[in-house]
Amino acid sequence: MIHSTIGSAGHLLVIIAFVTALVATFAYFKSGMAGGSVEDTLTWKRFARIVFYTHVAAVLGVVFSLYWIIGNHYFEYHYAWKNSSLSLPTGYTISSFWQDQEGSFLLWIFWNVVLGCVLIFTNRSWEAPVMTVFALVQAFLTSMILGVVIPGLAIKIGSTPFLLLKEVMPDLPVYKMDPNFIPKDGNGLNPLLQNYWMVIHPPTLFLGFATTLIPFSFAIAGLWTKKIQDWIRPALPWALFSAMILGVGILMGAYWAYETLNFGSYWNWDPVENSSIVPWLILVAAVHTMIIGRRNATALKTAFILTIATFILILYSTFMTRSGVLGNASVHSFTDLGLSGQLLIYLLTFTIVSVGLLIYRWKTLPSDEEEVSTYSQEFWIFIGATLLCLSGFQILATTSIPVYNKIAEAFGTVLNMALPADQIGHYNKFQLWFFSLIIALTGIGQYFWWKRVGKGNLQSLYNPLLIALLISAAVITLKGVKDIQYIVLLTTGIFAIVANGTILLNIIRGNYNLSGGAITHIGVALMLIGILFSSAYTKVVSINNSGLMISRSEEFTSNDNKENKENITLWLNKAEKMGDYMLTWRDVRVEPRHIPGYIPKSWVDIVENDFHAVALRDIIVDDKKYNSKGDTIEIFPENFYYEIEYREPSGKIFTLFPRVQINPRMGGIVSSPDIQRKIDKDLYTYVGMVTNPTAEPVWSKTENFTINLRDTFFVNDYVAILDNVVRTDSVEGVTLGAGDAAVKAIIRVLDKDKEFVITPSFVIRDRMVARKPEVSNDLGMRIQFQEINPQTGKFTFAINTTQRDFIVMKATEKPLINILWLGTFVLVIGFIMATVRRFKDFIKMRNKEALPAGQAKPKAKVQVV
Amino acid sequence: MKKIHIFGLVIIAVAIGIIVSTAGDASTYVDFTKAKEMAQEGDNESIHVVGKLKKGAGGQIVEMQYQPEVDPNYFVFTLIDNQNVEQKVIYKNSKPQDFDKSEQVVVVGKMKDGTFSAEKILMKCPSKYENGKMETTEHTAAKS
């Protein structure tokens, strides 16, 4: 049965959400316009609030409907069919929700209504103008999932997630036979996204996107209602909160990429990554100008520009990733859903309105009477903010290359520009210096801010400078840092830690509430140092030393072999030397759902197109028996783990399990690394190529060998010796009766450095001959005991060979990467402290303003409606 | 001149520097004919070429060679660009997974001694269940 009600309800609720957002925009706008009587304003505001609450209810209804469809596996719906499947564990069913564009818009819409409600409750005095902007944004966002075709014009507005499969693909042949066909199972979630980070990364990132709207709304409200300076106080805690969430969201994505993708790094300069880091940089710059904006008019103007720019950049980033303009420039951009026009209108509307309003009010903004002194705190903070903007500008200028092509196309010319071939080199050329300066300025700026360093007393900066230089010199010598640009970044980073650390020690004694800034700066400095070592000093350890090189020509061996020799081939159970380690690929394992760790693939028989497997033996892990032979167990059918044993020079052994995912429905083999984490470095290993673990081996044509005992023969380049043929009492899988007899041959096969013994059996049971072949995966060989000739005393064996199993793997060492993650935690703590402090400021002021003069009570909670 | 003006000028100068450098570092999409011309003129810049894999009558890929047992870091294939020009491409890294399935391949690199030496391979693979949607994956020959 097709559950059409829930989809219709969802679709209807989207329309309601869209209409209520428009009405709320208008009503809040009327309420915010000066000129009306107080009563009018209040009536409009009350009405607007009711409409907005209806919008909230509608949005929650839409979210609920889509979850209901996915959670109940209604595969008659295209969205559920495309993005989820029965075998998906509950946690990942949640990720199916935002796997596609419509769901991710919905996630964004959801966060906006949550934030809108928080704002209405905490900030009644700014409600009308701020919520006007909010409601307008909601109108645009809900229009993206509207899925309504304007009759007559054939214009489609938005793309709804509530389409039935047969509405999306009416041409499927199955619908000709059965119009009510419902697929039994869905297409499943991309196995790459079946990762806990993908459960929390998108909501965090979208919360970050959503929160940038708040400072923007306050800035617009400030311009609109001419509260030119007052908007900063309520906006600042939100701007800090937004910078924290957006930063965490981006870093979660980076960490996921590090753990799951085989880029070999946490940052790939991918356009999608870039287009989210640029608004973050501008937002951080905006925060700094907001902090000094109440004292300095230039900073105030800049705060307006940057706050608006942050939000516009978020929209631009949305446009880039969702309009299909990136095309093949990015690994993970969405495809065009036909929304690019709508997205462009969204982007242009907010750009024109906000920039227009800013220009219109520009003359009324205050100006500084006298020029800012080079020795003032404002000056240094301002330079820092400018550098952040330049850094963002540089990333944006390059990332937008596909956009230039499109613009040129629109004007009829062909530009054919492509992203730089050496992206890392290109970005580093600027970013390394920008960030060296920025991080140095955090130290200097803090000294000017707290120590009142000024003309004539610069000496207080000498101590941290001296200490930093000494520490840097030690680190440079110890770690062998040679390149000048890395020396500069390292030294400035250490200076920032020392300077901010000194400030921190001073203020923490007074009021720890104020130490957020210093802590955040220390976090950033740690992150930069971590990035410096883990990226610039990544060492490839899987240099191919096997001697099996295709060429020893200069081209191959130049540049320390680095260019070409970073992958090594491992044969099953054959030890290979890699760097200091001896490596052996032991086995392929699968991941059972309710048993810790991974179990060998040979223990189970995987049921095709299902998430179950039949145990071929008792499943015992760590001396605990989980299942008996013949039981059916649940597994993750796409995941295969390659057991790679590392033997250190000391003899210590550890094992890594890099993963390979097979999902024919997603059309791919995807490999993910496994990481050996040590305090001072990570050992990062992934397999680049494998023989498909689900494929049956392809055996060569049978070759028969008829030989005597002790004869030597050649199979597939191996020397084999029939050592003996002996009587045996037991053959696995065969029960021997009283009159039955069995013999097994002992065949020794000599590989280069190892011997293998293969023992096929020959059984006579109930006067019938049974032959039990033996397979050696290590050699890629199957031997069957074919015949015994009593007259000649010769034995015949049927032998097939196949490609020996191999994997191609790569391993790198990432030194000091933990400093990056440590820095991230410090950064987050700093941001939280700063946010709390600014929020307390805001509450204090709000409550003071709320009381008529002379009646100020410390604990008053009256609010103006 | 006020300090703010000098400051402004410096920023504009840096911004211009950024734009010039972006234009300078940006690569271009060309075809193999152009790539050969560039190599002959001694232009050492890495370029992007879009093409399709050479296929035989039965739809199987021809002139592709990867022998990990000999050298896991040597992969050769033939690409046909949009002008139907064939070119042998050498990629000194492991063969990307699913390479065989890709509909369209973008190689980034340059011509060297008559063959195209790829530093990076971008692939577009069709996923049959997602009506015509192309998935792009990226593979880079190791740099560092």
Automatic annotation (TrEMBL), chain A:
The superkingdom of the source organism is: Bacteria
State what protein this is by name. Answer: Cytochrome c-type biogenesis protein CcmF
The text of the family note is: Belongs to the CcmF/CycK/Ccl1/NrfE/CcsA family.
The alphabetical list of record keywords is: Cytochrome c-type biogenesis, Membrane, Transmembrane, Transmembrane helix
Q: Which residues cross the membrane?
A: 6-29, 50-70, 105-121, 133-155, 205-224, 236-257, 277-293, 300-319, 339-359, 379-397, 430-449, 461-478, 484-505, 517-537, 816-836
Source organism per entry reads: Dyadobacter arcticus
Q: Does the record bear Calcium in its keywords? A: no
| Pfam families per record | Cytochrom_C_asm (PF01578)
Q: Which InterPro entries match?
A: Cyt_c_assembly, Cyt_c_biogenesis
Show where the Cytochrome c assembly protein domain sits. 99-323
From TrEMBL, chain B:
UniProt-recorded name of the protein: Cytochrome c-type biogenesis protein CcmE
Q: Where in the cell is it found?
A: Membrane
**Annotated keywords:** Cytochrome c-type biogenesis, Heme, Iron, Membrane, Metal-binding
- Species per Swiss-Prot/TrEMBL record: Dyadobacter arcticus
Q: Identify the Pfam families for this entry.
A: CcmE
